[in-house]
């Protein structure tokens, strides 16, 4: 298979984690005989420095000419003083909107060998396998008006607005996913206070009629935040609006032991997608070779599965990650006293590549004998 991938490392740890992810992509491409052409572009602070804007037209063009996008992370203290249109985060919001990537899938799966890395009790997180389906192009991050008002800019405004159709398409994604999984959908809102949430509930109830096999529950976001820590096993698919999904997914990352473990896919109706870790640019550890590259590497697996339909290739990456963790290797964020061998970003990526190569060699030997 021949595919073109736009690679946007961004800022902070973005470049470090992307380097390893591309090596993993190459290893899996070599194994299965795929031609993955990658071309680098700029987004976020790196784009501000080079082009004066966080999402330059050159980057949009590159993505338009590509089959999928891999993105590292954006943002950092260097650009925090800039007006909001020029902030790195604006580049990320803009690329999501530009490509209509309204459905953000954030899977949260507990790895057996990382149960001790979670701050939650082992029995609580064991076997957790849930997906947060986050609406990504509407809500508070995009609503207008947004900014300062009043004679002296003494009023700050952000607007939470949703159209029915925006809710319906993301809710449908949630139902479709739940139908293929454990058939349970939790819709998270704040319907006791917000009008957008009351409409969200109405839409969920309407769409639910088309999916009688899926059990539906409505949950207020404050309770959902608590239950994610108290009874995470009760969840299968959670569907929610933009900001609630943003916050709940960082919280849920602790089930896996680290924010550095969660990948994501930002999708629309066709196969095009943008794949990025859930975490940000981690300025506190950037440039130190300490970042966990696994969320980025697992995002590559999501790209292979969702944009290219390469299920087996995606599974081989996930298996290699699991094998490396089973062998006891940990980046600093996952290390619990006395357990495992601490490695840096490059070494962790290299271990995954070596695992893939070893699995490839083993499968070739087996194929020769079968
Ligand atoms: N998708 C994106 O590009 C996102 C960008 N940001 C931006 O990133 C910048 C930093 O934001 P923060 O609030 O610090 O959030 P962050 O997610 O960058 O970091 C939060 C904490 O998690 C740690 N961490 C994150 N990823 C890690 C990894 N792969 N390995 C090991 N540790 C990791 C960091 O060291 C830090 O202690 C800000 O400019 C923010 O706006 C924040 C979230 C998402
Ligand atoms: C940096 C923000 C624009 C988004 C964010 O935190 C996220 O998508 O997880
Ligand atoms: Mg976030």
Automatic annotation (TrEMBL):
Its EC number is 1.1.1.85. Keywords: Amino-acid biosynthesis, Branched-chain amino acid biosynthesis, Cytoplasm, Leucine biosynthesis, Magnesium, Manganese, Metal-binding, NAD, Oxidoreductase. Pathway: Amino-acid biosynthesis; L-leucine biosynthesis; L-leucine from 3-methyl-2-oxobutanoate: step 3/4. It catalyses: (2R,3S)-3-isopropylmalate + NAD(+) = 4-methyl-2-oxopentanoate + CO2 + NADH. The record marks 141, 190 as: Important for catalysis. It is found in: Cytoplasm. GO terms for molecular function: 3-isopropylmalate dehydrogenase activity; magnesium ion binding; NAD binding. NCBIfam families: leuB (TIGR00169). Belongs to the isocitrate and isopropylmalate dehydrogenases family. LeuB type 1 subfamily. Catalyzes the oxidation of 3-carboxy-2-hydroxy-4-methylpentanoate (3-isopropylmalate) to 3-carboxy-4-methyl-2-oxopentanoate. The product decarboxylates to 4-methyl-2 oxopentanoate. Homodimer. This is 3-isopropylmalate dehydrogenase. It comes from Rossellomorea aquimaris. The gene is leuB.
């Amino acid at each position: 298979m021949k595919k073109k991938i736009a690679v946007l490392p961004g800022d902070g740890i973005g470049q470090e984690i992307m380097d390893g992810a591309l090596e993993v992509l190459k290893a899996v491409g070599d194994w299965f005989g795929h031609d993955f052409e990658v071309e680098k572009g700029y987004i976020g602070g790196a784009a501000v420095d080079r082009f004066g804007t966080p999402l330059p037209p050159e980057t949009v063009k590159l993505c338009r000419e590509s089959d999928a996008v891999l993105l590292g992370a954006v943002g950092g203290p260097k650009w925090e003083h800039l007006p909001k249109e020029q902030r790195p985060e604006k580049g990320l919001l803009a690329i999501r909107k530009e490509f209509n990537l309204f459905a953000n899938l954030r899977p949260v799966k507990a790895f057996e060998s990382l149960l001790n890395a979670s701050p939650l009790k082992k029995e609580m997180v064991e076997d957790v396998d849930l997906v947060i389906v986050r609406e990504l192009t509407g809500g508070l991050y995009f609503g207008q008006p947004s900014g300062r008002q009043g004679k002296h800019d003494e009023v700050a405004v952000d607007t939470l607005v949703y159209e029915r159709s925006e809710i319906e398409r993301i809710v449908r994604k949630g139902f479709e996913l739940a139908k293929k999984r454990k058939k349970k959908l939790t819709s998270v809102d704040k319907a006791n206070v917000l009008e957008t949430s009351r409409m969200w509930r109405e839409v969920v109830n309407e769409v639910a009629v088309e999916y009688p096999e899926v059990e539906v529950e409505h949950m207020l976001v404050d309770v959902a935040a608590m239950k994610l820590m108290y009874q995470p096993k009760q969840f299968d698919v959670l569907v929610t609006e933009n900001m609630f999904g943003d916050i709940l997914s960082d919280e849920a990352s602790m089930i896996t032991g680290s924010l550095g473990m969660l990948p994501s896919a930002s999708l629309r109706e066709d196969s095009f997608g943008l794949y990025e870790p859930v975490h940000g640019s981690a300025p506190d550890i950037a440039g130190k070779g300490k970042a966990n590259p696994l969320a980025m590497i697992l995002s590559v697996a999501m790209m292979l599965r969702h944009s290219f339909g390469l299920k087996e290739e995606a599974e081989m990456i996930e298996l290699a990650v699991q094998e490396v963790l089973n062998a006891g290797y940990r980046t600093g964020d996952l290390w619990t006293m006395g357990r495992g061998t601490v490695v840096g970003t490059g070494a962790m990526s290299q271990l995954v590549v070596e695992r893939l190569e070893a699995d490839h060699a083993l499968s070739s030997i087996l194929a020769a004998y079968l």
